[in-house]
Amino acid sequence: MPRVAVDVLLKREILDPQGRAVERALPGLGYDGVSEVRVGKHLELEVDAEGDELADRVRRMCADFLTNPVIESYTWRVIGDDERADA
Amino acid sequence: MPRVAVDVLLKREILDPQGRAVERALPGLGYDGVSEVRVGKHLELEVDAEGDELADRVRRMCADFLTNPVIESYTWRVIGDDERADA
User: Fold this and answer.
1) By the 8 A CB rule, do B86 and A73 touch?
2) Phi, psi at residue B7, to the nearest 5°?
3) Is residue B81 less than 8 Å (CB to CB) from chain A?
4) Which of A6, A46, A47, B64 has the greatest number of C-beta atoms within 10 Å?
5) Is residue B85 a contact partner of residue B42, using CB atoms and an 8 Å limit?
6) DSSP 3-state assignment of B55?
7) How far is residue A62's CA from residue A73's CA, in Å, rounded to a whole number?
8) A42-55 per-position pLDDT tens digit
9) What ipTM score was computed for the predicted complex, to two decimals?
10) Cβ–Cβ of B11/A65 closer than 8 Å?
C-alpha cells in the first residue's frame, strides 16, 4: 500500500505565530541566518489505492477533513519507507 | 537562500493519539482503506548556508530545539519554491 505524506501550512498571507516564535528564538540559541520560518502539520498515512484514484482520494480527504482550506494550503507526495519521518 | 522542510513525527514505538483519532474518524466520513496514520509537525525555514554546513546546522537545530529526540524522529530536505506547502 502506498504511503502518503501530507504537509499543511497556514496560507502565506496569514500570520504564523508559531513560526514567528521559532524564528525569534533561534538567534538566542546561536542559530543566525534563519528566516521565513513556518510551522504546520505533517501527516503520514497508508492509502489502499493507486494512481489517479489515490490522488483523488488524498485530495478529497485533505479538502474535507485533514486541512482547513480557508486558512491552510498543503502539498502531498507518495513516500518510500526510507522517507518516513519516524523511520 | 535554500529553503528547508523538516518533518517531525513521534517515534514509531510511541502511541500517536492524534494519528489514531484521525484513523478512526476517516471511515465515518466515507474514507475506507486508510491506515497507519501518523500526525506530527512540518516546518519550513530558509537557512543562510549551503552543502555540508547547511546539513550540519539543520541537524543541530533539530536536535537542540525543533524536535524532542527522546520521543520524536525527523527527516529534512531542501525544497524548491514550487514544493512549499504554502505555495
Assistant:
1) yes
2) -115, 125
3) no
4) A47
5) yes
6) helix
7) 9
8) 999 999 999 999 99
9) 0.93
10) no
Distances (CA, A) of A20 to A23, A36, A39, B48: 5, 8, 9, 17
Residue A69 CB contacts under 8 Å (≥ 6 apart), including other chains:
A63
The pTM for the full model equals 0.93
Give bridge partners of residue A72 from the DSSP assignment.
Answer: A10
**Counting Cβ atoms within 10 Å, is residue B83 exposed (0-12), middle (13-18) or buried (19+)?**
middle
Rounded CA separation A62/A43 (Å): 10
Q: How many residues does chain B have?
A: 87
Ranges of beta strands (E only) in B11-71 are 34-47
Q: What pLDDT is recorded for position A4?
A: 97
Q: What angle do CA B20, B69, A29 make, to 5 degrees?
A: 125
Distances (CA, A) of A22 to A19, B51, B62: 5, 23, 12
Q: Which helix (H) or strand (E) holds B58?
A: helix B51-61
Q: Which residues 20-39 in chain B show a CB within 8 A of chain A? A: 22-23, 25-26, 29, 31-39
